[in-house]
Each structure stands twice: as C-alpha cells, then as structure tokens.
Amino acid sequence: xxxxxSRRDVIRIRLVRQGLFDGRLRGxxxxxxxxxxxxxxxxxxxxxxxGVRAPGTTLADVDAAINSGRIVRSWPMRGTLHFVPAVDLGxxxxxxxxxxxxxxxxxxxxxxxxxxxxxxARAVAVHALSGGRELSRAEFxxxxxxxxxxxxxxxxxxxxGHLALxxxxxxxxxxxxxxxxxxxxxxVRSPRRLDRDxxxxxxxxxxxxxxxxxxxxxxxxWSQLTVADARAGLAVAADRLAELVVDxxxxxxxxxxxxxxxxxxxxxxxxxxxxxxxxxxxEYLIGYQDRSFAIDDGSLGRVVPGGxxxxxxxxxxxxxxxxxxxxxxxxxxxxxEPRPFDPLSAGQAREFERAVAQYAHFxxxxxxxxxxxxxxxxxxxxxxxxxxxxx
Length: 391
Description:
This protein is α+β, with helices and mostly antiparallel strands. Helices cover 42% and strands 18% of the residues.
C-alpha cells in the first residue's frame, strides 16, 4: 500500500536513514551496515563520511574498524572504491563484477592487459600474500615487475583493481596513512553466502534501508545492475519495503525503518536538522541518480566543477546543499573555509563553527584560524588525488 508524501518528507527521512539527523548511528560498523556502501576513492574523505554519521567517533575509531577487518575498502560496484561491511563484499561483487569486467575490456586492451597477464598477476598475488602477508601498493607493483609483469602508467592500478573485483585481493589494514593489500579470502574469513535471488533482494533492501526514500531508477544507477536485475531484486524484497508516492512517482524505503519523529516535525520536516560539513563524494548527494532533492541543477556545477566527476566537500543545511568547503591542516590544527553559494546568515555561521569543531574532534586536532572569515568568491579546491574508476 502506498502513502502520499511530499518532497520535504523525502528529505527528512533521507537525513534520518543516512545517519545525518535524529537517530544517528552509534559507530562505524553501524554506518556501513545501514548504508551498505559508501564511496571511498578519496580515502580521507570516506573516513569522515563514516565519522560524521556517528557523532563522537574519532579517526582512530575508523582506523580500528578498518584494521580489524569489520569494514573493507574495495570495488563492489561502479568500478569505484567503496567502504562496505566485510561480510557483504563477496555477494555484491558476484552480482556487479561481470558487468564491470566487461566494461573494462576496452581500457585493458589499451593497456595490453589480457587474460594471460591477469592470471599471471593473480598467481603472483596469491604466492606473495598467502599466509597473512601484506604488501603496500608500491611493494606489490614491485613484485609484479620482478615477475615480468609491467605496471607502468595505469597498468598496475588496473591489475590491482581487477584482482580485487574478481575476489582475489582487497585493501586491508593500514600501514601509516595507507592501506596494504591482502588476500580477500584470508582477510574476510566468514563472508555471507547468498544465492542470486537472495543477493538481488538483499541489495535492493539494503539500499532502500540506508538511502530511502528513493526510486528503483536511483538504485539501478547506484548499483549499476541492469534494470531487469533491479526489478527482480525489488520483487524479492517487496514485502519488506514501504512505498511513498511523491508527485506521482513511487519511492521505496525499508518497511521496518525508523523514520524519526514525523509528528513533531510536521509541516517543517527538516527545520531542526543541523548544518553539516559533509565530505567530498558523500552518499547524501552521490547516492542517487536524481539529486534534485539535495541541490538545484544550477548549483550542481559548483559542487562538480567542470563536470569531471570530482565532487567537492559539502555544506548541508536543512537537507539542502548550500555551499562547499576546503580545509587547511597542520600537524596540530585544522581550519575550514566555507564557500557558500549565498552568504551565510549569522546563525548558519555559528552552526558552521560547530561543524568545524566536530570535524576537528574527529581528526584529533584543534580548530585553527577563523573558519567563517574567508572570502566567499574564490573557487573551491578539488579533493586530493582520489582513485580513478576502473571503467
């Protein structure tokens, strides 16, 4: 049975389900369990995507979850790195991997990567990493070179990505500020085993639980499954989903989902949601094909300058993107410069200072400088060196 709803209802519930307002999540693993996957080609930004959804969490907490293997960073979909619950990576890749591999063939041909090269690299990886051993990216590429497998240009990166996508490797614990490569079946010892229909239903349910209300088209874009597979998953999960109809369009969310206190907020559903400093590539914006609930089309180019797929950090107020920010960090402090689309009000400026303090606490640093004193006309800086997509 469908329920009529407004666009404001969608915004309010998304904030709640994404852990950004009212009923926030209690820790890093709860964030990944809820959202299933958070885009993570920008490693530092992805850690803050976890932290901002679990208030009080620190960078050390995120690192501990990574080092314990409870969450894992790999390529579960769209040829892009994501954080996912470790136990869920395998069934996700079984659904998504074949399409990504198919789309990668043209790029592999350009890099002279064929099946023989891939299987030689896989054998090298298994031999070098078996028994709980780990290698940094540079060390692993050196081992490939020693075994006659060239890694120049993007060749090494695409070999690592393919071996991860097909279930041999994943990024494991941290060494310094970077992760090291490990064998997936040694790092994730008790993966969930789902048949294809179960996996499709789980994929759909988990997306709508953490990202809903959203459309089936949003899910198909996010997962990059075929529309037929998306519909099959919807059929499997249908009895566990609720439907909202907004302007004649059906949006889904998990039937058991806590959507916050709708009665208290009736008429002003996002009035009390805080102003937030969200990271680059945050799921609140990037997790949907239709981004109009979060940002006006005319402002999207200021978040993705040049339309090149590089999403800047966001200032979010009442569920809407009102600007971007950039940071300046030293060994002891961090400051954030707001780049609002329109000047911040006095109240928003105070809220931004609170958001800066939350981010500084997460990093274990003090707040440096005056976070709201920077000019607002200069262009925002792009995120630092995110990993490129595989396809």
